[in-house]
Each structure stands twice: as structure tokens, then as C-alpha cells.
Amino acid sequence: MNAPAVTRHPVTDRVREALAITLRGADELIPESDWLQKLARAEATGEPLRIKLGLDPTAPDIHIGHTVVLNKLRQLQNLGHTVIFLIGDFTSLIGDPSGRNSTRPPLSAEQIRVNAETYREQAYKILDPERTELRYNSEWCDQLGARGMIQLAAKYTVARMMERNDFHQRFTEGSSISLHEFLYPLMQGYDSVALKSDLELGGTDQKFNLLMGRHLQQEHGQEPQCVLTMPLLVGLDGEHKMSKSKHNYIGITEDANTMFAKTLSISDDLMWDWYTLLSFKSLAEIDALKAEVTGGRNPKDAKVMLAKEITARFHSAAAADAAEQDFALRSKGGIPDEIPELTLTGAPVGIGALIKQANLAASTGEANRLIDGGGVRIDGQVVSDRGLKLDVGTYVLQVGKRKFARVTLS
């Protein structure tokens, strides 16, 4: 079936501004001309556009890398459009093969249910719940049945499916590809048909799946959605995309002090990418701040501003101020007001074993490596002897800049 003809509407300054907001920090908008006309139509008719983001609840929490697309949704939501936060409780049963070199193990229905509830709560830290349409793709996917699934599969060829980079690479390398993995992009695309979306967002690794939505909408006689891909946020290490498996992430449920300190740990160069993708400041404000730094202002000032903005978003302005004070105190070698306290017996105790018992290191071996690296202090003094034993008394142990414990030995 052919998609209906699109009526052209005048492109006003407000429409151009909405396009600029859409493009901020984006990797690609496909096709830009179609999205411009959708924006023009929305302004002319007063009918909001339907903007979709789908996330599979494959893990129990979200890190700030996920919030890149959520921030973009909020920006478009602020323009008056309808945001659809789609939880892929059905597609999670398949497992997204994007970027994978092996079949993703499926999750249980109970895991998906628990994770989905957590995703909803965390997404609402950014999105306005009153202006968000929360949906689950099991609503329509469960109803398809075997007949509907076969009819859907008939709308795409194996040859085109094998054009997808990860499928092509795995086939070339002789790695296995399960048939059910071909269903994933089809089901994600069918979500766009069911929701009649005008725009779908995703990371750059989702481009194939997002374009599938355009194809299937055309096959069903709908006006095809536009596709907006956002860059994958580089993590704390400055090299790889933010990922829990790379241990280079900031979880949005982490405490304020940790969130603040982790943000301050990124490089000066990476800071500007984070500003573009994570900050709610305008591009003009960011450019002005960057010019100040280029002109001699300490880049740490800009990084502190970013750290406070991110921390305040997920906690509060007061918590961000307190985190700043806590970081300053720790960086000067001071002891925070509130630290864990515990009482241990068996003095004298070796310093390595004591650090482990105080939960400041995972093992005695790790504690010894920290001592060798000059990362352990007792009452503010650096410990260099891993053979040190502590007798009866109370000591403040410090590991690195952020881990403290007040230990009473008897």
C-alpha cells in the first residue's frame, strides 16, 4: 500500500527553532525534510506529533548514558508534543541482537516485570509523567498470534535482513544466528505501526531497527516515521561507551556525593560532549562557557557546574551543594561528617585485613595493592607498609578519595 500524500505547510521561525532543538547533539535525522514538514503541520493544525522511545527492561536500572535519549524526549515534550515511553516487555523475551556477536539469553517474565517497573520510575525523573504516554508492546504483540507473525515476516526479505552489520558479520565469521533474532527488528518496527509514531529515537546502534519502523509503516499504508539517532555517551574512562560491564558509568540512582565526584573525574575534553548531550543549558550558554574557559577560566569551574546540574536533576539542588562541599573537604584530606562506623575484635590486626573487614576493599590482596599505590591513609597519614598492624584503639581509615570508615579495635 502507498502512504498517503503529505500536505505541505509553511515553515515558520518557530518551526525552524523546533528543528534546531531536535538536531542538538543528534547524530542523524532521517529524513530531515520530512521532520521539518511534520513540525510545520503540527504548528499549523495544533495537533501534537507522536514521538516514541522504546527501551527493553533488560537490567534493573538506568545509567546517565540512557538519559541522552530521555533528555531529547523531554526537549520535544516541552515543545508540546506527545512522548510515548514504550517498555519492550514483549521484545525483551526475544533479546535485542544489536551490536551482539552471539545470541542474547532471554529474560524470565518475572525479571522483565520487575525491571520494567524500575525503568518507569527512573524515566519519570526526566520526563513529565503528566505528558507521557506509557505503553507496553505486549499490548499488541501478544495479539498478533502465529498468523499475524507470519504475515509480518512476509513484509521483509532475508537478503535485506542480512544487510544489517551485526548479522552480516556473524554470518561471515560463522557465528550462529538464531531465527528468532530476525523477529526482533520486525517487532520493534511493528511497534511504530501500532503506535502510529511520527518520530522514533534511539542510539546510533539502533538505526537498522528504527528504519524498519519506517518500512513497516509504509507497508501498512501509514505516513512513515522519521528517525533520530543520538550518539552513545562516552563513559568515565573517556574511551568506551558508558556501560555497566565497562565499570565506566554513573547510575541515576547512585548517591549524590558519588554522582558529583564521578562527574568531576571526566576529562576536560569529554566534559563538552557531556554538556551537549546531558545539560539542559542552551547551546548559546554552553558556547559562552566554553569561550570563557578558552579565555583562561579554570575548566574545573565548568565541570563543577555540570556535576551540580546532573546531581541536582536526580537528587536536589541542596544535595548537589552538599556534594560539592563534601568533595572539597575530601580533596583537602578532610573527613566527612558522616562515615561508616564499626567495631572489630582481635587486635592487633594487619592493615590489609582491616581494610577488607571494613569493606573498603574486596580482598586483602586488593588492599595491599592500594597500599603499594599510596591510596590508603590512617588518620590522614599515608600508609606505605603493608605489614603494619594496628593495636587497640579507634582509627579513621581512608581508601582513595571517597571511601572512609571509623574503626574501633578491641
UniProtKB/TrEMBL annotation:
Residues 354-393 form the RNA-binding S4 domain. A motif ('KMSKS' region) lies at residues 241-245. InterPro entries: aa-tRNA-synth_I_CS, aa-tRNA-synth_Ic, Rossmann-like_a/b/a_fold, S4_RNA-bd, S4_RNA-bd_sf, Tyr-tRNA-ligase, Tyr-tRNA-ligase_bac-type, Tyr-tRNA-ligase_bac_2. GO terms for biological process: tyrosyl-tRNA aminoacylation. It comes from the Bacteria. The keyword Cytoplasm applies. GO terms for cellular component: cytosol. It is found in: Cytoplasm. It catalyses: tRNA(Tyr) + L-tyrosine + ATP = L-tyrosyl-tRNA(Tyr) + AMP + diphosphate + H(+). It is an enzyme of class 6 (ligase). This is Tyrosine--tRNA ligase. It comes from Comamonas serinivorans. The gene is tyrS.
